[in-house]
Amino acid sequence: MFSAFTNSFKVPELRQRILFTLGLIVICRIIAAIPTPGVDAVAVRTLLTQVQASAGGSFLGLFDLFTGGAIEQCAIGALGIMPSISASIILQLLTAVVPSLERLAREGDAGRQQIIQYGRYLTVALCVVQGYAWAAMLEHPEGLLGIHADIVHNPGWSFRLMTILTMTTGTMLLMWLGEQITDRGIGNGISLIITISIVSRLPTAFRQAANMFRAPEGGVAQFSIIHAVFLFAMLFAVIAAVVALTQAQRRIPVQYAKRVIGRKVYGGQSTYMPLRVNYSGVMPIIFAQAILMFPSKIFSMIKMDFFQSLAHALYIGTPLYTTLYALMILFFSYFWVATQFNPVQIADDLKKYGGYVPGIRPGTPTAEFLDRGMTRITLAGAIFLTIIAVIPQFMGQYFRIPWVVSSFFGGTSLLIIVGVMLDTMRQVESQLIMRHYDGFLTKGKLRSRR
Question: How many domains does the chain have?
Answer without folding.
Answer: 2
